[in-house]
Here is the input.
Amino acid sequence: MIHITKLLMTLLICLSSGLLSAEPVHYGQNQHKNSTQPVNSNRIYGKVTETFNATGYTYAEVDTGKNKVWAAAPVTPLKVGDMISFSSGMPMTNFHSKSMNRDFPTLYFVSQFNSGNSNAAIQATNKMSPHAKMEQKPLAKPIKGIKKAKGGDTIAEIYTNKTKLNGKKIRVRGKVTKYSPSVMDKNWLHIRDSSTLQDLTITTNDTAAVNDIVIIEGKLNLDKDFGYGYIYPVIVQDATISNK
Here is the structure.
Protein backbone atom coordinates (compact mmCIF):
# COMPACT_ATOMS: atom_id res chain seq x y z
CA MET A 1 0.00 0.00 0.00
CA ILE A 2 2.91 2.32 0.86
CA HIS A 3 4.57 1.55 -2.47
CA ILE A 4 1.34 2.30 -4.37
CA THR A 5 0.97 5.65 -2.54
CA LYS A 6 4.58 6.63 -3.38
CA LEU A 7 4.03 5.66 -7.01
CA LEU A 8 0.90 7.81 -7.26
CA MET A 9 2.70 10.78 -5.67
CA THR A 10 5.62 10.39 -8.13
CA LEU A 11 3.20 10.35 -11.07
CA LEU A 12 1.42 13.48 -9.81
CA ILE A 13 4.76 15.33 -9.41
CA CYS A 14 5.80 14.36 -12.95
CA LEU A 15 2.48 15.46 -14.42
CA SER A 16 2.59 18.73 -12.51
CA SER A 17 6.13 19.44 -13.70
CA GLY A 18 5.14 18.71 -17.28
CA LEU A 19 2.19 21.07 -17.14
CA LEU A 20 4.21 23.85 -15.59
CA SER A 21 6.97 23.54 -18.18
CA ALA A 22 4.61 23.35 -21.15
CA GLU A 23 4.76 26.24 -23.66
CA PRO A 24 1.92 28.69 -22.93
CA VAL A 25 -0.94 29.06 -25.40
CA HIS A 26 -1.40 32.58 -26.79
CA TYR A 27 -4.91 33.81 -27.38
CA GLY A 28 -6.15 36.75 -29.41
CA GLN A 29 -3.54 36.45 -32.17
CA ASN A 30 -4.49 37.17 -35.75
CA GLN A 31 -5.75 33.94 -37.28
CA HIS A 32 -5.95 35.15 -40.89
CA LYS A 33 -4.23 32.67 -43.16
CA ASN A 34 -1.61 33.70 -45.70
CA SER A 35 -0.99 37.05 -43.99
CA THR A 36 2.03 38.25 -42.06
CA GLN A 37 1.68 41.38 -40.02
CA PRO A 38 4.81 43.47 -39.45
CA VAL A 39 5.20 44.79 -35.94
CA ASN A 40 4.27 48.47 -36.08
CA SER A 41 2.27 50.08 -33.30
CA ASN A 42 1.40 53.00 -35.58
CA ARG A 43 -0.49 50.87 -38.10
CA ILE A 44 -3.53 48.60 -38.07
CA TYR A 45 -3.63 45.42 -40.17
CA GLY A 46 -6.49 43.12 -41.03
CA LYS A 47 -9.02 41.68 -43.46
CA VAL A 48 -11.82 43.71 -45.01
CA THR A 49 -15.17 42.28 -43.88
CA GLU A 50 -17.43 45.05 -45.22
CA THR A 51 -16.88 48.03 -47.49
CA PHE A 52 -18.89 50.73 -49.24
CA ASN A 53 -18.42 54.16 -50.81
CA ALA A 54 -20.20 57.28 -49.55
CA THR A 55 -19.66 61.06 -49.65
CA GLY A 56 -16.42 60.72 -51.60
CA TYR A 57 -14.84 58.17 -49.26
CA THR A 58 -14.39 54.41 -49.03
CA TYR A 59 -15.47 52.98 -45.68
CA ALA A 60 -14.03 49.61 -44.65
CA GLU A 61 -14.70 47.37 -41.67
CA VAL A 62 -11.45 45.57 -40.86
CA ASP A 63 -11.04 42.40 -38.78
CA THR A 64 -7.67 42.63 -37.01
CA GLY A 65 -7.99 39.17 -35.47
CA LYS A 66 -8.70 40.74 -32.08
CA ASN A 67 -11.56 43.07 -32.94
CA LYS A 68 -13.23 44.86 -35.81
CA VAL A 69 -12.73 48.54 -36.56
CA TRP A 70 -13.88 50.94 -39.25
CA ALA A 71 -11.70 53.23 -41.35
CA ALA A 72 -12.44 55.82 -44.03
CA ALA A 73 -10.08 56.93 -46.81
CA PRO A 74 -10.47 58.64 -50.19
CA VAL A 75 -12.29 56.40 -52.68
CA THR A 76 -10.23 53.23 -53.09
CA PRO A 77 -10.99 49.97 -54.95
CA LEU A 78 -11.52 47.47 -52.12
CA LYS A 79 -13.44 44.23 -51.78
CA VAL A 80 -14.34 41.89 -48.94
CA GLY A 81 -11.42 39.60 -48.19
CA ASP A 82 -8.67 42.09 -49.06
CA MET A 83 -5.82 42.37 -46.57
CA ILE A 84 -5.05 46.02 -45.87
CA SER A 85 -3.25 48.26 -43.41
CA PHE A 86 -3.65 51.89 -42.47
CA SER A 87 -2.36 54.47 -40.02
CA SER A 88 -3.73 54.29 -36.48
CA GLY A 89 -3.81 58.09 -36.36
CA MET A 90 -7.01 60.14 -36.19
CA PRO A 91 -9.40 57.70 -34.41
CA MET A 92 -12.90 59.03 -33.75
CA THR A 93 -14.92 57.30 -31.02
CA ASN A 94 -18.72 57.15 -31.06
CA PHE A 95 -18.71 58.90 -34.42
CA HIS A 96 -22.11 59.74 -35.91
CA SER A 97 -22.35 60.46 -39.63
CA LYS A 98 -25.26 62.78 -40.32
CA SER A 99 -25.08 62.23 -44.07
CA MET A 100 -25.42 58.44 -43.67
CA ASN A 101 -27.38 58.52 -40.39
CA ARG A 102 -25.05 55.84 -39.07
CA ASP A 103 -23.02 55.40 -35.90
CA PHE A 104 -19.49 54.00 -35.73
CA PRO A 105 -18.06 52.92 -32.34
CA THR A 106 -14.58 53.75 -33.65
CA LEU A 107 -13.76 55.25 -37.03
CA TYR A 108 -10.26 56.06 -38.32
CA PHE A 109 -9.92 58.87 -40.88
CA VAL A 110 -6.83 58.04 -42.95
CA SER A 111 -5.17 59.37 -46.09
CA GLN A 112 -4.94 55.97 -47.83
CA PHE A 113 -5.35 52.22 -47.47
CA ASN A 114 -2.27 50.04 -48.07
CA SER A 115 -2.29 46.56 -49.53
CA GLY A 116 -1.65 43.99 -46.82
CA ASN A 117 0.12 41.62 -49.20
CA SER A 118 2.61 43.92 -50.90
CA ASN A 119 2.42 46.86 -48.45
CA ALA A 120 2.31 49.15 -51.52
CA ALA A 121 0.03 52.13 -51.40
CA ILE A 122 -3.33 51.91 -53.14
CA GLN A 123 -3.57 55.37 -54.62
CA ALA A 124 -6.73 57.34 -54.08
CA THR A 125 -8.86 57.93 -57.15
CA ASN A 126 -10.89 60.83 -55.78
CA LYS A 127 -10.35 63.85 -53.56
CA MET A 128 -8.08 63.51 -50.57
CA SER A 129 -9.23 63.87 -46.97
CA PRO A 130 -8.89 67.43 -45.69
CA HIS A 131 -6.83 65.94 -42.84
CA ALA A 132 -4.33 64.25 -45.12
CA LYS A 133 -0.88 65.76 -45.49
CA MET A 134 -0.90 66.91 -49.10
CA GLU A 135 1.55 68.62 -51.40
CA GLN A 136 -0.21 71.10 -53.62
CA LYS A 137 1.18 72.59 -56.81
CA PRO A 138 2.07 76.26 -56.41
CA LEU A 139 -0.54 78.62 -57.78
CA ALA A 140 0.56 80.99 -60.52
CA LYS A 141 -1.39 84.08 -59.48
CA PRO A 142 -4.24 85.27 -57.24
CA ILE A 143 -7.83 84.99 -58.39
CA LYS A 144 -8.97 88.21 -60.06
CA GLY A 145 -12.07 90.19 -59.15
CA ILE A 146 -12.63 89.06 -55.54
CA LYS A 147 -13.42 92.26 -53.64
CA LYS A 148 -12.98 92.69 -49.90
CA ALA A 149 -16.14 92.04 -47.90
CA LYS A 150 -17.72 95.07 -46.24
CA GLY A 151 -16.61 95.16 -42.63
CA GLY A 152 -14.26 92.26 -43.24
CA ASP A 153 -10.67 91.39 -44.13
CA THR A 154 -8.85 90.00 -47.14
CA ILE A 155 -7.08 86.66 -46.80
CA ALA A 156 -3.74 88.49 -46.96
CA GLU A 157 -4.80 90.73 -44.06
CA ILE A 158 -5.95 87.72 -42.06
CA TYR A 159 -2.55 86.06 -42.41
CA THR A 160 -0.72 89.32 -41.64
CA ASN A 161 -2.82 90.02 -38.53
CA LYS A 162 -3.49 86.41 -37.53
CA THR A 163 -2.05 86.78 -34.02
CA LYS A 164 -4.29 89.75 -33.26
CA LEU A 165 -7.31 88.05 -34.85
CA ASN A 166 -6.78 84.71 -33.11
CA GLY A 167 -9.95 83.65 -31.30
CA LYS A 168 -12.03 86.42 -32.86
CA LYS A 169 -14.86 86.33 -35.37
CA ILE A 170 -13.77 87.32 -38.85
CA ARG A 171 -15.52 88.09 -42.12
CA VAL A 172 -13.95 87.35 -45.49
CA ARG A 173 -15.05 86.97 -49.11
CA GLY A 174 -13.51 84.31 -51.33
CA LYS A 175 -13.93 81.80 -54.11
CA VAL A 176 -14.42 78.17 -53.11
CA THR A 177 -11.55 76.13 -54.56
CA LYS A 178 -12.15 72.90 -52.66
CA TYR A 179 -15.15 71.35 -50.86
CA SER A 180 -15.26 68.13 -48.81
CA PRO A 181 -18.60 67.31 -47.16
CA SER A 182 -19.31 65.30 -44.01
CA VAL A 183 -15.86 64.86 -42.55
CA MET A 184 -15.98 64.55 -38.75
CA ASP A 185 -19.54 65.91 -38.93
CA LYS A 186 -18.39 69.11 -40.65
CA ASN A 187 -18.16 70.36 -44.21
CA TRP A 188 -14.66 71.53 -45.14
CA LEU A 189 -13.78 74.09 -47.78
CA HIS A 190 -10.89 76.21 -49.00
CA ILE A 191 -11.35 79.75 -50.31
CA ARG A 192 -9.05 82.16 -52.15
CA ASP A 193 -9.26 85.82 -53.06
CA SER A 194 -7.36 88.45 -55.06
CA SER A 195 -5.01 89.50 -52.26
CA THR A 196 -2.66 86.52 -52.00
CA LEU A 197 -1.74 83.08 -53.33
CA GLN A 198 -2.59 81.56 -49.94
CA ASP A 199 -5.94 79.95 -49.29
CA LEU A 200 -8.02 79.77 -46.13
CA THR A 201 -9.43 76.58 -44.63
CA ILE A 202 -13.01 76.67 -43.31
CA THR A 203 -15.20 74.25 -41.35
CA THR A 204 -18.96 74.76 -41.42
CA ASN A 205 -22.38 73.12 -41.23
CA ASP A 206 -23.45 75.05 -44.33
CA THR A 207 -22.95 73.83 -47.87
CA ALA A 208 -21.15 75.29 -50.86
CA ALA A 209 -19.87 74.32 -54.28
CA VAL A 210 -16.50 74.73 -55.95
CA ASN A 211 -16.27 78.09 -57.79
CA ASP A 212 -18.96 79.72 -55.61
CA ILE A 213 -18.14 83.27 -54.46
CA VAL A 214 -19.09 83.35 -50.78
CA ILE A 215 -18.75 85.42 -47.63
CA ILE A 216 -17.47 83.48 -44.64
CA GLU A 217 -18.06 84.50 -41.02
CA GLY A 218 -16.53 82.44 -38.25
CA LYS A 219 -13.95 82.20 -35.48
CA LEU A 220 -10.29 82.28 -36.49
CA ASN A 221 -8.05 79.78 -34.72
CA LEU A 222 -4.30 79.26 -34.97
CA ASP A 223 -2.34 76.01 -34.84
CA LYS A 224 -5.46 73.89 -34.48
CA ASP A 225 -4.27 70.36 -33.69
CA PHE A 226 -6.59 67.50 -34.67
CA GLY A 227 -4.07 64.97 -33.38
CA TYR A 228 -1.37 62.76 -34.91
CA GLY A 229 0.38 65.58 -36.74
CA TYR A 230 -2.68 67.06 -38.49
CA ILE A 231 -2.24 70.72 -37.61
CA TYR A 232 -3.78 73.71 -39.34
CA PRO A 233 -1.73 76.90 -38.74
CA VAL A 234 -4.73 79.06 -39.67
CA ILE A 235 -8.36 77.87 -39.80
CA VAL A 236 -11.85 79.36 -39.52
CA GLN A 237 -14.15 77.05 -37.57
CA ASP A 238 -17.94 76.74 -37.30
CA ALA A 239 -18.41 79.36 -39.97
CA THR A 240 -21.59 80.53 -41.67
CA ILE A 241 -21.70 80.92 -45.45
CA SER A 242 -23.64 83.52 -47.40
CA ASN A 243 -23.69 84.57 -51.04
CA LYS A 244 -21.57 87.45 -52.30
